[in-house]
Structures are given as structure tokens and as C-alpha cells.
Amino acid sequence: MLAPPRTKLALGALSAACFVSVTSENLPVALLPQLAAGLGVGDSAIGLLMTGYALVVAVSVVPLVALTSHWDRRTTALVTLGMIVVSNLVMAVAPGYGVAVAARLVAAVGHGVFWSVVASMATRLLGPGQGGRATAVVFAGNSLAFLFGLSASSWLGATLGWRTAVLAVAGVAALTALVIRLTVGPMPAEAAAARGRRVIADRSLLPVHLTTLLVVTGHFAAFTYITAIIARYVHLTGAATSTLLFAHGTAGLLGLVLIGRHVDRHPRATALITTGGLAVCMVALLAAPGPGVAGVAIVFWAGPAAGIGVVLQAAVLRVAKSRPDLASAVYIVAFQIGIALGAALGGIGSDHGMLPATAVVAAVCGLGAALVVRRSAAFAG
Q: Which residue spans traverse the membrane (predicted)?
């Protein structure tokens, strides 16, 4: 069934919000060399901008989601987008590393709240039984962030400076908030509020959280340092890096479309493609005989990576039908711990001249996640 025009506009606005959230969160990835040089710190310190961000989200998301559980969902989205605007405005004028850290924390506080409601908002727009499809539609913004957001940020950082790139993200976030205000109608919180303790202790969700922790840790161990990986294995640096990031994002968008079409009907198969695909791409990168094959492995890596959020969020919505917001909040804790742990592990490898170890971690974690998916009823159709 085709969605009415107003619903399409609303879904597009939510997808745009996902785009700006992901672009803002991953700016240290796209701007790693420029930020390191501009702030006078090493690559691992810039990686900590990802780790610290993720830890703040992990610690704050459950209490903040509970605190805002009675807010109108549109209001929640607008407030969290406003925090992204403020965060990047401060980041753009940061005189040193300490202010940059503080600026990142502003957006981190609202990040988990936004992601705990956006999928359920999209599901309410499309209707029951469409959780996977709705999630795929709005999460297209994630892939577009890697296709355009990060590659454009990388290009801006290399040509006009990292402050210009960060300021541009603030402007896009402000515009997105305006579009949501105009296209998404009021969306009061649902009356059936979840009990926090029962959601946290729900054993049916444990395999989803374990899969999340494993696959996200592995992905971000390598992805946080993707610019360094590209430089080492593909021999591209500076503005040329944005070309490969663009190809990476294009592959991610295609992967999202394919996974989004099948996730509701074949949840286990799509989850296995996502988790096992990560392991396969990392092994291919490590075994690549030259820069051409390594570049292909990096591009194909985006396919399974794009499906991570879709298959896992869809599993949460499928298992926790009556309590999606708080269940999503707990899932986000696992996701953000995975980001923090992955970025930290990748930083250790980068600092000690063991960049290939980041791909090894990703391969092992992807394989472990695939084994959990294979055995878990949470991913059954």
C-alpha cells in the first residue's frame, strides 16, 4: 500500500533528521586528520570524541527516555535536533580540545533520546506490521549521511577547513528541525508506557542486545579509523578520501534498500547478511593483494554496515511491541557501548602501529554476532 503524500513528507523529514544526527555524530571520523592537526592532538584523542560521546549516550539514555516519556514525540525530535545545532556551533568556534569535548557532549545528551523515538514514530506513521519497512525508510538518512554527509564533510574539511564543515552541519540541523515542525503533525506519547525495570530485565531482548554489542563493537573498531585504513590500504589521502567515502555511502544506500525490502519477511536472513557480511568484508580487506581490491572491500563493507541499525531496531520493535521507546533506549545503550568499546579498541591498535588489528576485531565480532543470530528466536520470522 502506498503511503499518502503527507505521510511521505513526514517520513522524509524524519529521514533527514537521521541524516543530520549520523553526520554530526561521525564528524570526527570524516575530519580526523584536520581535527587532530587543528586541535593539536593525536588521532586517538579524536577517536575519544567518538568514545566519550557514546559513553554519555549509554549512561544517559534510559533515564532521559523515562523522563521524556510523556512528551509529544515531535517535540522530543525538535529538542534533540536543537541540541545538535548548539553542539556544532560551539564546536565550530572551539579554541582547543577541551571545548571540543564539551561541545560534543551537548549533542550526546540528546542523541539517545532521539534514536529511541524515531523508529517508533515512523512505525506509527505507516501502521502496524510495517516496523521494518518504516525503520528502513527513515534509516535511509543514515546511509545518505555516509554517502553525502561524511564525504562532503571530509571534502569541506580538506578544502575549506574543519570549522567550516562543522558549521555546515549546524546549519543543516537547523533547517531539518524547521522541516519537521512543518511536516510532522503532533504525536502525543502513547498511553501504554513501559515499566523501566521490566524492560531492562526482559530476557527475550538479551540476544538482540548481545548481537548489537558484538557487531557494533566490531564495526566501529575499524570504521572510526576508516580514513587511516583508506590511507594505508588504498593509498588515498586528503580530498581524494572523500571519493571513496562517497562510493562507500552509495553501496550502503543500496544495501539498505535491499535489506529494508526483506527485513520484515526474512529477519534472520537479513541479520545474518549484516553480521556475517561484516566479517567477510574485513577478511577480504586483510587478504587484499593491492589497493584496488582493498578499495572494493571497503566499498562493499558499507552494505552490511547499513543494515545494522535496521535489522536490530526491527528486532526490538518486533519483540517489544507494547513498549518500543524504553526497549529502544536499552538497545541504544548496547549500541553506544559498542561504539565506545570499538572506537577505544581501534584507538589502541592505531596508536601502536597495529591498524590491521582493527579489521581483525571487526571480523571476529561479526562472526560472533552471526552465531548469536543463528541460534536466537528473537530473529525468527
A: 48-68, 75-95, 101-122, 134-156, 162-184, 205-230, 236-259, 271-288, 294-317, 329-348, 354-373
**Nearest alpha carbon to residue 220 among 152, 295, 148, 309:** 309
pTM of the model: 0.75
Query: What is the phi/psi pair of residue 186, to 5°?
Result: -55, 140
C-beta atoms surrounding 142 within 10 Å: 27
Mean pLDDT computed over 203-212: 88
The 3-state DSSP class for residue 115 equals helix
Task: Write out the three cell numbers for 235.
Answer: 593509498
Mean pLDDT for all residues in the chain? 86
Which residues have a Cβ under 8 Å from the Cβ of 112 and sit 6 or more positions away?
Answer: 57, 58, 60, 61, 64, 65, 329, 332, 333, 336
Q: In this model, does residue 199 exceed pLDDT 70?
A: no
**Cα angle at 229 between 293 and 111, to 5 degrees?**
120
Domains of the chain: 5-379 (1.20.1250.20)
pLDDT digits 0-9 by tens, 232-291? 899 988 778 888 888 888 888 888 888 888 888 889 999 999 999 999 999 999 999 899
Cell of 270: 537479513
